[in-house]
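RECORD TYPE: inverse folding
INPUT: structure tokens
STRUCTURE:
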């Protein structure tokens, strides 16, 4: 006989498993009747008792089935991920026993809402660390139900909130804008452009919203955006995605030093906000027990000094040669250097030839640009930024140097014609920031559904 509890009965309190009992009316006494819904995350059957850990996205709750409840067909064939509705009483956990939040629900009635097939249990609980990576990517929708993947996504959401809060609270504040993803200009070189047909015209998926942010400065003041950027990267590396979330900001009437100071402030404040939230701090430290907020100021190092440092430490180029001025420092060398120095580095003043066309030259040394990469241990480059060329003629020359037809850039060039200004900005890869904070091996673990070479499913 199905006994339906009367939902209007004040004794039946709806409790999401993530809430503490104290959150729910005066229910912090033992024996409060509740109704919970969720999916079976863990299941352990003993003689005459079944322990189910229910998950609902807000937290975990241990539910104890005893007596006749363990003898039904549903109970005996219980599979992980089965969705259930359970009624019962909340008790604290007996001494010396462990359960999430030290509480458990003693069920007196439950109903299966959707039985799970039970064939992919390893994926949904532990994301099977020894499983073939392709299998895990194919089953990303189930991997996301696992503890690690869901923790990373929760930290990701917290970081997005923290960035928005930080841009609101700094002086002067930055205004959020939403630039287009479908564009007809490149920002970071033609080699990584995704092109598509736009009503018969050639268009691209944006590589960066920077050029659009620059056009906002005159009327909106400093601006930022959180938008996807797309790169048709040819190489499969642990830190390159084809689509990633780009946090970009652009600041008007500043110097290069102002840009570095702002960047340091934003990054440290975001980390601080994440760590002051106890739930998020716990997730971060569970994922990355060694994580510590970075110390300010970050180490500053000029590109030319980095080349010397690499040679002093006998770290070679990909071809096994010593580094020389003008080389693009490869990912492996950059990571070795960052890991040895083991603190955040602002690597600055890259030669103009190896950087994007729009970067401002250093007035003291025109061989180099007022550019910066922020490097973090374990990940390497997390941020790329620079001051922008403000002079019209210089910009026209720069287009020529990289063989870009200036015609479709008329709106960008116009910024130098109608009241130019010293300005600069940066882009931060959210997945790389997360990989650094959460100690993940690859940025692919930091994206909800990662896109990389040959992977666009699910
Ligand atoms: O250094 P990048 O290419 O700089 C720009 O796009 C500038 N226009 C940004 C700006 O000044 N507004 O990219 C900036 C950051 C990198 O430091 C990295 O964190 C991330 O974007 N990034 C990627 N992340 C994941 N996968 C990729 N393929 C990435 N390419 C860049």
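DESIGNED SEQUENCE:
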């Amino acid at each position: 006989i199905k006994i339906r509890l009367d939902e209007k009965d004040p004794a039946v309190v709806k409790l999401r498993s993530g809430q503490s009992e104290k959150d729910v009316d005066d229910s912090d006494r033992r024996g409060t009747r509740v109704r919970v819904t969720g999916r079976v995350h863990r299941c352990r059957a003993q003689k005459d008792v079944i322990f189910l850990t229910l998950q609902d996205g807000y937290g975990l709750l241990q539910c104890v089935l005893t007596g006749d409840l363990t003898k039904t067909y549903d109970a005996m064939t219980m599979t992980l991920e089965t969705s259930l509705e359970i009624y019962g009483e909340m008790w604290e956990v007996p001494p010396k026993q462990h359960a999430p939040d030290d509480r458990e629900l003693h069920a007196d009635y439950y109903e299966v809402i959707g039985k799970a097939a039970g064939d992919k249990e390893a994926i949904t609980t532990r994301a099977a660390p020894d499983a073939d990576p392709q299998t895990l990517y194919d089953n990303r929708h189930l991997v996301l139900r696992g503890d690690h993947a869901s923790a990373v996504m929760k930290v990701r959401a917290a970081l997005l909130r923290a960035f928005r809060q930080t841009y609101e609270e700094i002086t002067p504040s930055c205004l959020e804008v939403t630039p287009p993803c479908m564009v007809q200009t490149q920002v970071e070189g033609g080699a990584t452009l995704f092109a598509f047909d736009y009503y018969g015209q050639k268009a691209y998926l944006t590589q960066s919203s920077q050029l659009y942010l620059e056009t906002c400065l005159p009327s909106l003041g400093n601006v930022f955006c959180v938008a996807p950027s797309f790169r048709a990267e040819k190489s499969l590396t642990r830190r390159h995605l084809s689509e990633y979330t780009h946090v970009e900001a652009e600041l008007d009437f500043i110097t290069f030093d102002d840009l570095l100071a702002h960047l340091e402030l934003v990054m440290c404040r975001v980390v601080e906000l994440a760590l002051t939230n106890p739930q998020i701090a716990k997730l971060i430290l569970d994922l990355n027990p060694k994580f510590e907020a970075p110390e300010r100021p970050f180490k500053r190092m000029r590109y030319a000094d980095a080349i010397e440092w690499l040679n002093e430490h006998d770290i070679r180029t990909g071809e096994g040669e010593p580094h020389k001025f003008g080389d693009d420092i490869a990912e492996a060398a950059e990571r070795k250097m960052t890991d040895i120095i083991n603190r955040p580095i602002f690597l600055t003043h890259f030669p103009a030839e190896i950087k994007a066309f729009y970067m401002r030259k250093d007035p003291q040394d025109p061989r180099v640009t007022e550019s910066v990469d922020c490097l973090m241990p374990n990940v390497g480059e997390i941020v790329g930024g620079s001051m922008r060329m403000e002079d019209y003629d210089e910009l026209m020359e720069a287009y020529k140097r990289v063989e870009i037809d200036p015609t479709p850039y008329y709106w960008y060039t116009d910024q130098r014609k109608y009241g130019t200004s010293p300005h600069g900005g940066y882009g931060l890869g959210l997945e790389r920031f997360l990989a650094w904070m959460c100690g993940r091996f690859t940025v692919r673990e930091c994206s909800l559904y990662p896109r990389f070479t040959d992977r666009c499913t699910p």
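NOTES: The CA atoms of residues 122 and 419 lie 61 Å apart.
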